[in-house]
Design brief:
By secondary structure, the protein is an alpha/beta fold. The chain is 29% helix and 25% strand. It has seven helices and seven strands. Helix 1 (13-23) packs parallel to helix 2. The protein binds S-adenosylmethionine (SAM). S-adenosylmethionine (SAM) is lined by residues 9, 11, 15, 37-40, 42-43, 58-61, 64, 85-86, 101-103, 119-121, 130.
Length: 217
C-alpha cells in the first residue's frame, strides 16, 4: 500500500502500465534509475524492488516529494527524492534507466498550472508541454547503452514522441499499449477535444502507451 498526501496523483492505469513495462527489463545492482515526475514514488519504489542499485526520483510538487520520501522510508527503500523540474536537479549525472509518467492531458489552454492537482495532468492544448521537454532533456542524462521508458496517451501524439527521440539518436519502439475508458478529466473535456478534432464525438476511450528509447551502446 502507498501513502498519499492529498493533492498527489493517485497511481492508476498509466502508472501500472509503465510498472509492467519496467518489470520486463532486467535491473541489477549496477542499474542507476531516474524516475522523472514521481508523484507518490510508485514507479521509483517498483524499480528499487526489482533490484536497481540506486534510484533517484524527481517531482516539482513539494507534496509529491514528501509523499515519495514517506513511501520510500515505509518500504525501507533508500530512494533519493529531489524537488525540481524534470532533469534539472540531476544535470550532469547519468542513469542506465530513465522512467517517466508525466502530465500529458490536452488542456483548455497552454498555461501550465503552477500549483494544484491539475499540475499532475494538464500539459497544454496538445498535451505535449512536458513530453516535448522530456524528449529533449532525457537523452542528456542517459548513460551509453541506457534506456528511457515514457508513458503517454495516444491523444498527445505518439508519433511526435517517436520522431523527437529518434532525432536525439535513440532507437524507439512502443513496448506496451492499453485501451482505457476516459477518466473524469477527459470526460469533462470531451466536447472541447472533439471540437479540436483530437477525439471523435462518440469516443469514450483512450489508448495509453509506453514508449521505449534506447541509446546505441
Ligand atoms: C501523471 S502524474 C504521475 C505520477 C507517478 N509517476 C505515477 O505514475 O503515479 C505526473 C507527476 O508529474 C509532476 N510534475 C508536473 N510537472 C513537473 C515538472 N515540470 N517536473 C517534475 N515533475 C512534474 C506532478 O507533480 C505529478 O506528480
Amino acid at each position: 500500500m502507498l501513502l498519499r498526501i492529498p493533492g498527489v496523483y493517485a497511481p492508476q492505469h498509466d502508472t501500472w502500465l509503465l510498472a509492467g513495462a519496467l518489470a520486463e527489463h532486467l535491473l541489477d545492482p549496477r542499474t542507476r534509475v531516474l524516475d522523472i515526475c514521481t508523484g507518490t514514488g510508485a514507479l521509483a519504489l517498483r524499480a528499487a524492488e526489482l533490484g536497481a542499485g540506486s534510484v533517484t526520483a524527481i517531482d516539482i510538487s513539494h507534496r509529491a516529494v514528501l509523499t515519495a520520501r514517506l513511501n520510500a522510508r515505509a518500504r525501507g527503500c533508500p530512494i533519493r527524492v529531489l524537488q525540481g523540474s524534470l532533469t534539472g536537479p540531476v544535470r550532469g549525472e547519468r542513469f542506465d534507466l530513465v522512467i517517466s509518467n508525466p502530465p500529458y492531458v490536452p488542456a483548455e489552454d497552454d498555461r501550465i498550472p503552477g500549483t494544484g492537482r491539475a499540475r499532475a495532468w494538464d500539459a497544454g492544448t496538445d498535451g505535449r508541454a512536458l513530453l516535448d521537454r522530456i524528449c529533449c532533456q532525457a537523452p542528456d542524462v542517459l548513460a551509453p547503452g541506457a534506456m528511457l521508458l515514457l508513458a503517454q496517451s495516444a491523444l498527445s501524439g505518439v508519433d511526435k514522441t517517436q520522431v523527437m527521440l529518434e532525432e536525439q539518436g535513440l532507437r524507439v519502439d512502443v513496448v506496451a499499449r492499453r485501451e482505457i475508458p476516459f477518466g473524469p478529466v477527459l470526460t469533462a473535456r470531451r466536447r472541447m477535444l472533439a471540437a479540436r478534432g483530437i477525439i471523435t464525438a462518440e469516443q469514450r476511450n483512450e489508448e495509453i502507451v509506453v514508449i521505449r528509447g534506447r541509446q546505441h551502446p
